[in-house]
Write a structure and sequence with these properties.
The complex is a heterodimer of chains A (539) and B (281). Chain A is 28% helix and 19% strand. With 539 residues, chain A is of the alpha+beta class. Chain B starts with a helix and ends in a 7-residue tail after the last helix. The chains are: A alpha+beta (539), B mainly alpha (281).
Chain lengths: 539, 281
């Protein structure tokens, strides 16, 4: 919905100064704009939707699982949010500036913002949330927040952070899903994780927590004191907890719920809903997370430690088949280690294409001759226990590898067993997927650098190590300018694709399916994780 | 009247036997009829039965459903047979010991058996397979572990009634060893209820294996009927044939085994056969 001019106004974190002018260019459509397009927002109506699985708690930071992020992002807000092209956009901060040396960031906060209990939201809350709350409870944010040297609040509506060294993707961690603002007057000096107030979340967002019947529903009501005039448009949101996927599909089909998100609807049901005239199926809105799936390969083992063998594996896999036949077009084939929706993706770097003949030639060249059964080598694939479509994927991979003479034996595990074996490096190959968090330094580096080879899940469990790649990632992390980082990441992508430590499969997408009368559902790079203050039900 | 003639007089049993023979033939001929892996993706996914060369349609990856059923028959029989033999070994040994020895040995064995009988067998099987990670061996062992207690009880009852008969006493007087008496004198006379029970246990084992596979606890490297139904269930609106045909295969096989079991029961216990409706379990 943003015009080109606006995109330019907010583009690139690398701009020296993003002045108050950018406040006029939020990702959200203004009222006048909307009227001009003939979709004037209408007040009223309750949005019934689904959340799966049920979140354990609704305090962001204390819990950062997918369902928690989706629900709690209506109650809490961050200083900034991100556009679909991953540029920062205002939220609780109406504008921000960055000093020329890239060390000092100053945020000007919105005025007249109140917590749900009536207290004023001030710069003190921001400093507390960032320097104390998230620093303690949120490991992913902590890694970045530790780069802050000094946090000051010159007045009630200004916050200034001084970094120890320039960090170009700094603004990307202020989204509500990464660093939500929490009330100082409730949490300061308490045990954040076990504060009794965690049962009744207090935020600044457009919806207030009203009722939670465990195993049944979570109900939110309109925040009458919301700081944007006349917003939100909805009277409330009710999140129903429906554990069975077929019941969820039925609820959507019959109109009992007006929206489903994330994993609610299985990929094989999506084509059916795409044909239903009263529903919209959106696949965007996951740009900030950009989950990328791959075959995780234990680079320490025989055969698997040989880049030629891994390259042959990549040639054996038809990623188009996976995207079309297994995911029914929800998501697209991967091209390399950085998803195309993540910053600094280099489209000129392409991983080996589907070509079984080439794979056979490589394996022949390695001296792996097929035996009487046509088997050159045997490997094990630990199945990822995330449900049916993932099982189909392993079955497909077994057949695809067999075509080039690699015999694959599947091993099944449960979720706990899978995480344990992945973390302990007790696997030959498995399937894995992780969020990329918008920037390679935040979400890609961890999978490939030597310093992150740890016995912890979602680190460099493959054991890939290339000093040149390490150097490039480190340089890119510390480079102050986006252009410089782009150059370094391009080089890193080339090097990684040469080594093929993993076989990338799909840039995953999750369908957001909603009633056509529900407007403005996906406006940002975080999609259904936005505050929904501009979402409305037309008559 | 010979055993076979008594058996042949039972129409249901003969139908069951015929179905079993057909399924067995299919299992044996699978590598000839479908000389490729049942996992092989041979064509367009979701082809209805009869189209594009798929007799019973293709599944979500373009695999041949008919090939899956044929190759799955062998897996079902293998699991049913091996786990029944394992359960019989354990059950007959314990039952014979309890029935022949009596006294505290009997008490100890029967309390142990009852302990297993109080746990719902399917739940126990699920737990065992989940703990030992699903593989053909862990599935067979789990099914055997949950199905031996009834065998023990039946065998114990038979041994209890037989051990005071004259021929056993005669053997004891002649000075034969206890084990020899159990194996060569009593066991042959207790065989008929064991055979009947075994045929029904094979049917239960096939059902158990299918249920486990349906829940995703099957061996991921073996095509089985339960797995086929489980993987077809979610797409039943798009491709009913993916779950219906393997379902029919399970239904027919289990039904046939039950019919045969009942026929065996009637044929081996002529006195019972006259009072229909009583089945030894």
């Amino acid at each position: 919905m943003m015009t080109e001019a606006r995109k330019a106004a907010t583009s690139a974190l690398g701009r020296r100064t993003l002045l108050a002018a950018s406040a006029a260019a939020p990702a959200l459509m203004t009222l006048g704009e909307a009227r001009a397009q003939g979709v004037a927002p209408r007040r009223g109506g309750v949005l019934n939707t689904i959340i799966t699985p049920e979140p354990p708690v609704l305090i962001l930071g204390v819990n950062n699982q997918g369902p928690t992020l989706i629900v709690a992002s209506k109650i809490y807000q961050g200083l900034l949010t991100v556009t679909p092209s991953l540029d920062p956009a205002p939220d609780l901060a109406k504008s921000w500036t960055r000093s020329d040396d890239g060390l000092t960031y100053t945020f000007a906060l919105q005025e007249g913002v109140k917590w749900h209990d009536g207290r004023d939201f001030t710069s003190e809350d921001v400093i507390f949330s960032i320097m104390k709350f998230h620093m303690e409870v949120n490991p992913r944010a902590r890694a970045i927040l530790q780069r802050i040297d000094k946090a000051e609040a010159p007045d009630a509506h200004t916050v200034r952070f001084t970094l120890k060294a320039p960090f170009e993707p700094f603004l990307l961690i202020f989204d509500v899903t990464a660093c939500a603002m929490v009330p100082k007057h409730i949490y300061d000096g308490t045990d954040f994780r076990n504060n009794p107030a965690n049962a009744t979340p207090i935020g600044t967002g457009p919806f207030k927590f009203a009722e939670w019947q465990r195993g049944n529903f979570i109900r939110m009501v309109r925040n009458e004191q919301y700081w944007k005039p006349n917003q939100p448009y909805l009277d409330g949101i009710t999140w129903r907890i429906v554990p069975d996927s077929q019941s969820r599909a039925l609820a959507l089909q019959t109109g009992q719920v007006q929206m489903t998100t994330s994993n609610d609807i299985e990929p094989f049901d999506v084509p059916r809903f795409q044909q239903q005239p009263n529903l919209t199926v959106a696949l965007n809105g996951w740009e900030y997370f950009s989950p990328l799936s791959w075959i995780e390969i234990n680079n320490r083992l025989d055969n698997l430690k040989d880049p030629r063998f891994r390259r042959a594996m990549a040639h054996a896999v038809d990623r188009n088949f996976i995207a079309q036949r297994l995911w029914f077009g929800v998501g697209k084939p991967a091209t390399g280690p950085i998803a195309s929706t993540t910053r600094f993706h280099d489209p000129s770097v392409q991983m080996p294409a589907f070509n079984p003949r080439e794979a056979n030639a490589i394996l022949d060249g390695m001296g792996l001759r097929p035996n009487a059964q046509g088997v050159r080598a045997s490997i094990k694939l630990m199945q990822i226990p995330y449900g049916e479509v993932w099982n189909r994927l392993s079955e497909y991979l077994r057949q695809a590898m067999r075509q080039v003479g690699i015999e694959v034996t599947l091993e099944s595990t449960d979720v706990a067993g899978w995480v344990r074996r992945l973390a302990a490096w007790e696997f030959e190959t498995t399937i894995n997927f992780v969020y990329q968090w918008g920037d390679p330094t935040l979400g890609v580096e961890r999978t490939y650098v030597t310093s992150n080879i740890q016995k912890v899940a979602f680190t460099n469990t493959a054991g890939y190590s290339n000093p040149e790649v390490d150097r490039l990632f480190e340089a890119a992390r510390n480079a102050a300018q986006a252009e410089e980082r782009r150059r370094l990441f391009s080089e890193a992508q080339k090097k990684i694709v040469e080594d093929m430590p993993l076989v990338w499969l799909m840039e995953l997408a999750f369908p957001t399916i909603h009633d056509k009368r529900l407007n403005n559902v996906i406006r940002t790079g975080t999609g259904v994780h936005a505050s929904f203050d501009d979402v409305f039900l037309s008559a | 009247m010979s055993f076979w003639r008594r058996f042949a007089r039972n129409l249901g049993a003969m139908v069951g036997l015929a179905i079993l023979a057909l399924v067995a033939l299919m299992a044996v001929l699978a590598p000839v009829l479908f000389p490729f892996s049942p996992w092989e993706m041979r064509g367009i996914p979701f082809m209805p039965p009869g189209e594009a060369g798929f007799l019973l349609g293709s599944d979500s990856l373009g695999r041949d459903v008919a090939a899956g059923i044929a190759h799955g028959a062998l897996v079902s029989f293998l699991v049913g047979g091996v786990s029944t033999v394992a359960a019989l070994l354990l059950g007959v040994t314990l039952g014979a010991l309890a029935g022949y020895a009596g006294g505290w040995v009997d008490d100890a064995i029967m309390r142990f058996t009852e302990f297993f009988q109080t746990i719902p067998s399917f739940v126990l099987a699920v737990v065992l397979v989940a703990i030992f990670t699903p593989s053909i061996a862990s599935i067979v062992v789990s099914i055997a572990i949950v199905s031996w207690p009834p065998v023990t009880r039946v065998v114990r009852a038979e041994f209890l009634s037989l051990r005071s008969r004259e021929f056993v006493q005669a053997a004891e007087v002649l000075g034969r060893g206890r084990i020899a008496i159990m194996v060569t004198e009593i066991l042959p006379n207790a065989l008929s209820p064991i055979i009947v029970l075994a045929s029904l246990m094979v049917a239960t084992a096939i059902l158990l294996e299918s249920s486990l596979s349906f829940l995703g606890l099957g061996d991921p490297n073996l095509m089985s009927w339960g797995f086929m139904i489980g993987s077809g269930r979610s797409v039943i609106r798009i491709a009913w044939w993916m779950s219906v045909f393997p379902g029919i295969a399970i239904f027919l096989t289990v039904l046939a085994l039950n019919l045969v079991g009942e026929g065996l029961n009637d044929a081996l216990n002529p006195r019972l056969a006259r009072r229909r409706g009583i089945v030894v379990t």
